[in-house]
């Protein structure tokens, strides 16, 4: 499986970003895809995951601000992030696994990540 993230960058507090992940090397619509992040000196944090059917789960910390979506025709997964805060600064990764529960437990294969920096 290969996952390539993009869309990170520098944004001001309150701003928005959309991260994208392009997947290849596996049957995309058979798997759940998710996003997690890791800030310097902190543990990895699950953010959101979406099943092949479109069913989603979110971490409580982001459920009112982040939206995950997937396009099974393009093998892409997006993470729309609104009202960003300095504590959202981290490297963001997409990941793939057979089930969303695995992604929620931070399992699965991941991409190389994309940096998001939120300035105060």
Provide a short characterization of the protein structure.
The protein is mainly beta and 120 residues long.
Instruction: Output the radius of gyration.
Output: 13 Å
What proportion strand? Answer: over 45%
Number of helices: 1
Spatial gap, N to C terminus: 36 Å
Low-confidence stretches: none
Give the rounded overall mean pLDDT: 95
Describe the global form: globular
Number of strands: 11
* SSE series: EEEEEEEEEHEE
Helix content: under 10%
Biggest sheet architecture: 7 strands, mixed
Strand-pairing-aware structural class: mainly beta
Can you put this structure into words, describing what you see?
With 120 residues, this protein is mainly beta. It is built from 1 helix and 11 strands, in the order E-E-E-E-E-E-E-E-E-H-E-E. The protein has one helix at 100-104, and strands at residues 2-6, 9-12, 17-24, 32-38, 45-50, 56-58, 66-71, 76-81, 90-97, 109-110, 114-119. The strands form 2 sheets. Strands 2, 4, 5, 6, 9, 10 and 11 form a 7-stranded mixed beta sheet that branches. A 4-stranded antiparallel beta sheet has the order 1-3-8-7, with no helix packed on it. A hairpin with a 6-residue loop joins strand 4 and strand 5. The chain is globular. The termini are far apart.
Label this structure with key terms.
120 residues, mainly beta, 7-stranded mixed sheet, 4-stranded antiparallel sheet, 11 strands, 51% strand
């Amino acid at each position: 499986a290969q996952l390539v993230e993009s869309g990170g960058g520098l944004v001001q507090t309150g701003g928005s970003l959309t991260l994208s992940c392009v997947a290849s090397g596996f049957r995309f619509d058979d798997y759940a895809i998710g996003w997690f992040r890791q800030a310097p000196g902190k543990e990895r944090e699950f953010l959101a995951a979406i099943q092949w059917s479109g069913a989603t789960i979110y971490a409580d910390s982001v459920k009112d601000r982040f939206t995950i979506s997937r396009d099974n025709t393009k093998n892409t997964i997006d993470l729309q992030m609104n009202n960003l805060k300095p504590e959202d600064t981290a490297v963001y990764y997409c990941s793939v696994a057979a089930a969303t529960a695995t992604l929620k437990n931070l399992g699965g294969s991941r991409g190389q990540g994309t940096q998001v920096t939120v300035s105060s």
